[in-house]
UniProtKB/TrEMBL annotation:
Protein name: Sec-independent protein translocase TatD
Cell wall biogenesis/degradation in keyword set: no
UniProt binding sites for a divalent metal cation 1: E91, D203
CDD domains linked: TatD_DNAse
């Protein structure tokens, strides 16, 4: 299985990268996609991924960081794409929950990253919180791109899921699904995700699956099997079937074959 969402630029991992890979591969996690939140982090993660065969990277500007996006940003990211091709543009999108950047700033940065993805034929790695309606309206204008992009860390309702699936999006599921209280709505939605649209991720070091005992302090790619087990249970399929499907989907969207 492949973890499609790791925040690798964190002391929890950077202190011992080699051990991170050993630990995850021992439990059957063959590789990970490391996600970026701004230009500086995109450059750093890209350098890291060049030194590890089981690591791939995105480049992009998180909606929290959209206020840093200026008239030069698009050209800087375009140069970065050409120097060492990432697997996606992101983490990009809209987050109206905390509004660390204004909605106007977020939409501007998102629109420019959509242009980047279109120009360079890359999928979008999408973040959305409390901005579902606006996200859908924007993606409706880019149907071909939406069909090869992913909603990262989906935690929404069945209605929101159906609207994303109508756009053709892939759906990323994290350890949120292992939380009986906070994840109850997501647990009800997961059985309705077609296998050919399903991806799994940890979002490590965040969103630790609450089913792990004893409970660690931080999440890690090695805990992806807990996400896989819960998703497989909810869908009524085996871990083997889930792994085969999600690896096929990872290849389809990101071009990663393991």
């Amino acid at each position: 299985m492949i973890d499609i969402g790791v925040n690798i630029n964190h002391r929890h991992f950077l202190d011992d990268m080699d051990q991170t890979f050993i630990d995850m591969q021992e439990v059957g996690v063959k590789g990970m996609i490391c996600i970026a939140s701004d230009l500086q982090e995109s450059r750093k993660i890209q350098t890291l991924s060049q030194n590890h065969s089981a690591m791939w990277n995105t480049i992009g500007c998180h909606p929290h960081q959209a206020k840093t996006w200026d008239k030069e940003s698009k050209s800087h990211f375009s140069e970065l794409i050409l120097s060492a091709r990432p697997v996606a543009i992101g983490e990009t999108g809209l987050d109206f929950n905390r509004n660390y950047s204004t909605p106007k700033e977020q939409i501007f940065a998102f629109d420019e990253q959509i242009e980047l993805a279109t120009e360079h034929k890359l999928p979008l790695y999408l973040h959305e919180r409390d901005a579902h309606k606006e996200m859908v309206e924007i993606l409706k204008q880019h149907p071909n791109l939406a069909q090869k992009s992913v909603i990262h860390c989906f935690t929404g309702s069945r209605t929101e899921l159906d609207q994303y699936l109508e756009l053709g999006l892939f759906i990323g599921i994290t350890g949120w699904v292992c939380d009986e209280r906070r994840g109850s709505e997501l647990q009800a939605a997961v059985p309705h995700i077609p296998l050919d649209r399903l991806l799994i991720e940890t979002d490590a070091p965040y969103l630790l699956p609450r089913t792990i005992r004893p409970r660690p302090k931080k999440n890690h790619p090695k805990y992806l099997p807990w996400v896989a087990q819960e998703v497989a249970r909810l869908k009524g399929i085996s871990i083997e079937e889930l792994t085969k499907a999600t690896e096929k989907n990872t290849d389809a969207i990101f071009g990663i074959r393991v």
